[in-house]
Here is the input.
Amino acid sequence: MDSPLTDILNLITLLSRWIHIVCTTLLVGGTLFYEMVVPIAIDDLKHEVQLAVFARARWVFRWIVWLSAGLLLLTGLVASRSHWTNYTGEAYALRVLPPATQPADLTVPTAAQRSGWWWAAHSSCGALTIIIALFLTFGNRPPDRPVQWMRLNLVLLMIVIFLGSVTGHVRLAEIDRAKAIVKAIDAHR
Here is the structure.
């Protein structure tokens, strides 16, 4: 029977995952909107008005980026902590079972079948996108070639989402593999 503390930790993990997804959506959507919609929307305006609209949009976008970046880092730490045994390989049944009890057809998972590698790619690429987003909103003036930077960051954000999805899929496959190993060992007994 689960304790109330376990229920609270599970709720925190669930809320953290939801906040992580919402912040990612805000970052991707905000980048897409700021990069593609705003320039087309203000195309007919005078140059001075365009600059004023861009400055105001950048100010709002800055708050979205900074808030999302902070929450993404925090919720990423919560998720990493809750799945750490999978990412480090400690959850593999073959590591805790004595060799004599392991089935003969047991194969060691490849690097692509280990969620730790995918987690490292997701985390490092995600950190890079946060750094780029913060770089784009830091200071009073945008950096040189902000549209190119935003396009690069948008592509990287899509890659980060893919890597996060693969990380979750591989982690669940690891759990299924561990259950199958335990079931095979129980059948051999």
Q: What stands out?
A: Residues 4-188 form one domain. The chain has one domain: 4-188. The CA atoms of residues 10 and 116 lie 21 Å apart. The mean pLDDT is 85.
